[in-house]
Amino acid sequence: MQSSRVKGVACIVDTDIAIDFLRQRDYARKLLQGWVGEGLLAISTLTHLEIYQGIKAGEDDATNAFLDGLVSVAVNIPIARRAGTMLGELRSKGVTVGIADAIIGATALQLNALLLTNNVEHYPFADLKVLRGFEDSSNG
Questions:
Q1: Does residue 133 or residue 114 have the better pLDDT?
Q2: What's the pTM value of the predicted model, to 2 decimals?
């Protein structure tokens, strides 16, 4: 799907949840199935990058099918500026956050969408609505 189709996005799926879905972890399958009726599921185009840096031989078809079934939101100027501002504000407080996480967080904020992640601590951004993918990490 094209990034121009971003209205109605219920949530942004973080890379860790997407990878767990691709690795057929039960909680991730149930989690994403539960969100299907709530609206469109989306990912940042940076999630494509993060997934493909760890893809294994023979996983291309399933990975492409999964990613193509989600709305992919490209990093545009408003998202880049918002991420940069968020990084600067945190850095001024002595907090360091990765650029990819800032862009994914800014994407969710730009779309006014919830972020599904197990890495809640990676997203200390004001006003960002974050939902942990699973409550008990030992069950993931």
A1: 114
A2: 0.87
